Amino acid sequence: MRGDVITGKYFMNGDVAAAEGALSAGCRFFAGYPITPSTEVAERMAERLPEVGGIYIQMEDELASMAAILGASCAGAKAMSSTSGPGFSLMMENIGLGIMMEVPSVVVNVQRGGPSTGLPTTVGQQDMMQAKWGSHGDYEIIAYSPNSPQEMFDLTVKAFNAAERYRLPVLVMADEAVGHMTERVVIPEKSAIPIVNRKGPSVPPSEYRTFKAGADLIPEFAVAGQGYFVRMESLTHDELGRPSLTAETQQVLVSRLQDKITRHAHEIAEVEEYLLEDADVVVVAYGITSRCVRQAVDEARAEGVKAGLLRLLTVWPFPSWRIQELAAQAKAFLVPEVNFGQIVHEVERAVAGRATTKFVQYTPGAMPHPHRTLKAIREVAA
Amino acid sequence: MTTVPEELREIHPRDELLRTDLFPHIWCPGCGLGIALHAFLEGMEKAGIPRDKRTVVSGIGCSGRTAGLLRVDSYHTTHGRPIPFATGLKLANPDLHVTVFSGDGDLFAIGGNHFIHAARRNMDIHVICINNFNYGMTGGQMGPTTPAKAKTTTTPYGNFEHPFNLPWLAATCGATYVARWTTLDARRIRDSVAEAAMKKGFTFIEIVSPCPVGYGRPNRIGSGLDEMKYYEEKWELRGENWIIQEGANPREADIDLGKVIVVGKFVDIEKPTFLDMYREQMPQFQAKKEEAKDRKEEVRE
Questions:
Q1: Which of A8, A29, A59 minimises the CB distance to B84?
Q2: What is d(CA A22, CA B92) in angstroms, rounded to the nearest whole number?
Q3: Which end of chain A has the smaller Cβ count within 10 Å, N or C?
Q4: pLDDT tens per residue, chain B (301 residues)?
């Protein structure tokens, strides 16, 4: 029987790699609902969780799946679900609950084309804004964007660590191409995988306050059954967890929920930079697109155009500070995405008119071809 | 302001089980929730469930406010989702005693799908439904248990839908324990809560409760006390003693305006829970794993 970390080199698809990343990060509870193209994550968890003493449960829908992982996390388990488009929409309700109750959890969204049932079996990047704005109310979120099966493993581990550290649902915004791609995945030794666990109460139960946060703005998490009598509340609440339906309490609570992410944004956000030192044209991309358009950058360089690639490993929090720095040097920003224009608006906001920002549209349903981005690079460089 | 000496302060004997900093509660005069809550606390004490292992999960609505009032690990979740939340809580730590305390709209309209599946799985959680026949918190709208022809703010000409018969629904979905009481009989609720709390598997208790503001007034039932009197008139205990298993047939337990309300225990059976079955299958899982070691996605380079 295999353990939680199956150290070795594998030929593995992205969905399976995400499941292995979760297990390596300490995930012991999975609740989900089958949906293409993320089903392989659930299948792998159904197979593997019993091997490591965990629980797999197939719920009646994604509303229930998200609620169940929050419940499991409140009982102390590292918990995950995986889904795609329509299921992600259903999860929005309880992603909001996870943000409000500050419950560590991970959702892998293997994006397909939408709206509605859309393109169930093919690639899309159309849920990027939904990840940030899809649940009602104001909140900050953490969302990773892998571009290979290896990153499905690595970034799922990071997602668990960020969820535990910052106490919120963390999203792995994958896509069908990465989820269904099969290639080399290296799973390191267990000791080489850094693991973060949520901080527990530092005070006795009599002094414990469910939502009292220190300087880092992150409250201490008491697990159910330890005598701390936690008071988890979905209404606007004070630090004791008492409902308090006033503008004053909303101001204090919702500010903290946002600040705990924005104040740590530089620690959380990760980018990969390729040929940016002298770049006139900056291509900003994430997920499968970032992998395809790297070729366009190389070909543009061969043609003498100073092009570079800023790859977003975390799309949220959005690394606007890096875009702002690059806007002082570059003439143009190109944002290729497999959607009808989403993250391009964030880039445009950060560039704030100091350079040209252009969207390179790739239609969901087909792999993004480098040629279209190369053409756009030539146009803006001319 | 003079300070009241300790010995003269009025302390309710169950204060230690409550978060008294939230009192006075938000419930209307004449509401049955206080009676149900007290009976629930007494039942949990009677069952001897360790206090630090008690968890209560609620959804949204008047009944949903219960969790936050209790000095246990309490979770006031989203509308309709206390059952799946409780499912995760229980599975991640089976030592916890998990009660879902919520209302008829929360559990059977928006949360109906979760109820039937948790019952089907025989998830080891204890569901208590306060049935007041309407959405009280939002001001008295029609819900899935509103009797036909009853008036609510969204059925001004009388309800034209068939209501759920909750004990029958729970029984057919596979609950191992099903009972219904009205707030008229707090001691029977207490005993039933204790009995259900000690059972393994998915248990369900419906507590018919007056809502004088949302339901009693538009249907000319009167005050909370009048609604209790109405139950007393209409209340019918099937069987000589509610302990008798075959005392009541849930199929005949539908509630109709002006007709009898059948109360009693409908179901009390034993069957393997989700976790019992999961654990039983696990060795097979492990054996399969040995055979499948050389699957194609795991071919080492």
A1: A59
A2: 16
A3: C
A4: 567 777 777 777 888 899 988 888 899 999 999 999 999 999 999 999 999 999 999 999 999 999 999 999 999 999 999 999 999 999 999 999 999 999 999 999 999 999 999 999 999 999 999 999 999 999 999 999 999 999 999 999 999 999 999 999 999 999 999 999 989 889 999 999 999 999 999 999 999 999 999 998 898 888 888 888 887 777 665 533 333 345 578 888 888 877 788 888 899 999 999 999 999 887 555 555 556 655 545 555 4
B298–A10 CB contact, under 8 Å: yes
Walk across the sheet containing B261-268 and list its strands.
Answer: A231-233, B73-76, B54-58, B97-103, B126-131, B203-208, B177-182, B261-268, B235-237
Answer yes or no: are the C-beta atoms of A23 and A99 closer than 8 Å. no
Torsion of CA B191, B193, B196, B202, to 10 degrees: 160
Question: What is residue B3's DSSP assignment?
Answer: P
Partner residue opposite A68 with nearest CB, options B22, B55, B87: B87
Q: What is the pLDDT of residues B56-87, one digit of tens each?
A: 999 999 999 999 999 999 999 999 999 999 99
- Of the candidate CATH numbers 3.30.70.260, 3.40.50.1970, 3.10.180.10, 3.40.50.970, the domain formed by B10-270 belongs to 3.40.50.970
Rounded to an integer, what distance in angstroms lies between the CA atom of residue A57 and that of residue A309?
41
Best mutation site among B27, B49, B65, B87 for testing chain A: the one with the most A CBs within 10 Å? B87
Q: Note the CATH architecture for domain A8-192.
A: 3-Layer(aba) Sandwich (3.40)
The amino acid occupying position A63 is L
Cβ of A64 within 8 Å of Cβ of B19? The answer is no
**Domain layout of chain B by residue ranges:** 10-270
How far apart CA A182 and CA A150 sit, in angstroms, is: 10
Query: How do the domains of chain A map onto residue ranges?
Result: 8-192, 272-381
Distance CA A230, CA B56 (A): 11
**For A74, nearest residue in chain B (alpha carbons):** B89
In total, the C-beta contacts within 8 angstroms joining chain A to chain B are: 173
Tokens of residue A374, six digits = 């190369």
ipTM: 0.97
Q: Do A8 and B93 touch (CB under 8 A)?
A: no
Q: How far apart are CA A309 and CA A335, in angstroms?
A: 10
Question: CATH number of the domain at A272-381, out of 3.30.310.170, 2.102.10.10, 3.40.50.720, 3.40.50.920?
Answer: 3.40.50.920
Of B78, B86, B297, the CB nearest to A97: B78
Q: Do A225 and B22 touch (CB under 8 A)?
A: no
C-alpha A182/C-alpha A40 separation (Å) is 12
- Quick one: tokens of B91? 């599975």
- Chain A residues in contact with B84 (beta carbon < 8 A): 31, 59-60, 63-65, 67-68, 71
The residue of chain A nearest to residue B26, with distances taken between CA atoms, is: A243
